[in-house]
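We modelled the chain as a single entity of 62 amino acids. Its sequence is:
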Amino acid sequence: MRAYVDQDMCIGCGLCEGTCPEVFRINDDGKAEAYADTTDENRDGVLEAIDGCPVGAIREEE
């Protein structure tokens, strides 16, 4: 599984990066991106970031 951040929806608040920096970072455009796959070790953090995104810009894809 891999998280995906919709760049058109993202407001760059950084909540996901703060919640799960092992998977999310802010890119040069000031938007969040998922740069790593979801693993057993970081899955809870990814799910927390998805649930916590204020604009619902994050989803998980296979």
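As a brief sanity check on the tokenised model: Residues 43-52 form the longest helix (10 residues). Residues 23 and 36 are 5 Å apart (CA to CA).
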